[in-house]
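Design review, sub-item: ligand-bound model
Attendees: FS, YL, KQ
YL presented the inputs for the magnesium ion complex:
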Amino acid sequence: MLIKPSGVQRGLVGHILSRFESRGLKIVGLKMMQIDEALAREHYRDHVDKHFFDMLLQRITKSHVVAIVFEGSNVIQNVRTMMGATNPSQAGPGTIRGDLANSASLNLVHGSDSPESAAREIALFFADTELHNYERALDEWLVLEE
Ligand code: IDP
Ligand code: MG
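KQ shared the predicted structure:
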């Protein structure tokens, strides 16, 4: 997941991270960086034909991002549900975009949409040494398989 430049510039990094952390999602990678144009093109390559592609590149490279890797069961769907719909006008209350954003091009967060895109995007943003494998003592209270 990425907290986009709009989230960093608006001072929402802590708030957004806190929502996921409070939900019990496990952080296994976390870094701040500025995306250059080459990385932006690669990251958003599926959108190259969209009319908003140039604006997408401009927005994601304009300032810094915070990149996060979460781990957990159903983590991709959990993250996307918490993000809300792409267009904040359609994002429900209680979602990050529904509560905090009002423009699709400034919608604060990016989340991978499938295991394949997650693997591809994690490899774009993180070296293996930046991904952490650790036990959380609280998992027995957060992750109960039934
Ligand atoms: P997602 O971020 O919810 O997965 P995508 O369809 O993958 O949405 O689009 C990637 C990003 O492109 C969105 O997060 C949003 O910032 C931007 N975007 C999508 N649709 C539009 C649009 O119609 N106008 C402007 N920007 C858009
Ligand atoms: Mg997407």
